[in-house]
Specification:
39% strand; globular; 269 residues; alpha+beta; 14 strands
Length: 269
Amino acid sequence: MSYMFKFSIVCVLLLIVSTSCKSEKKAPVEVETSEPAIENKMLTPVETIEEAYNKDVFLSKEAIELDMVISFGGKERLSGKMTYLTNSTKGKMALNDGTFIYYDGENVFHSPNLKNDKAARFDAYTWMYFLLFPTKLSDQGTIWSDIESAKLNDKTYNSQRLTFEANTGDAPDDWYIVYSDPKTHMMDYVAYIVTVNKSTEAAEADPHAIGYSNYKMIDGVPIAHHWEFYEWSKEGGLGKVIGNATLNNVKFVTPNADTFSVPSGFIEK
C-alpha cells in the first residue's frame, strides 16, 4: 500500500471525526442501566406482618367469598355466605334465614325482615374487618405504637397497639392490640374494643380478643378458618372463651354486575 493512499485514509478519518464533533444534531447515546437489587430490605413491623399474609397477592384478587358461622354463648349468632371486595369497599351477607345485609363503604342496607336489625351496621363491618384485618393494617388513618414484647398464654409475642385518627372509618374510637409471632410474624391474637352502638367508656370496660387458627392457603394467601373470641384484659391477658367463628368454602371470586346491588325496599341503617 502506497504512502499517499495511507495518508488519504488518515485524512478522511480525521475529517469524519472532526465533522462528528462539530455536529449539533448528534443524538445522545442511551445507556441502559438498572438499579442494583436491594437485598434484605428493611420492613416496618406492620409491613412484616402484611408480607407474611401475602397482602399484595390478596389485593390482586377482586373479591373473596366464604361461608361463616358465628356463635356466642353456645348459640348461633349469625350464619351465611359472605362476599367482600378485597379492598373492603363493598360487601354482601346472604344469611341462612333468607335475609341480607349490604354495605358500600359508607351506607348499610338490610332486608325489612332482618331479625337483629339493630346490629346490622355492626355485622356489616365487624366480621368483614376481622377477616380482612391482615390487609388493613396500613390503611389511611392508622396509628401504630412502638413494638413491645408481651406474654400471652406463656408465649412471648411482638405487641403493638393500633389506634385511628379522628373521623377514620365507622368507629375511629376503636383500638386493637396485635400479638404477632416474632418468627413467623403471623397474628395469633388481637385484643380489641368495639364502640359501635356504645360509648368508648362502655367498650373499654368490656374488651375482648380474637384468636386466629387453622390457617389454610387459598391461592397463596393464608386465611384463618377458625376464630375464637375471649374475654381479655391488659393485666390478665386472655380470659374464658365466649364465642367462635368457623369459615368454610373460602375462595376468591369475580363478582358480577349485580352482586352488590341493593334490592329495592331495603332499609338503610
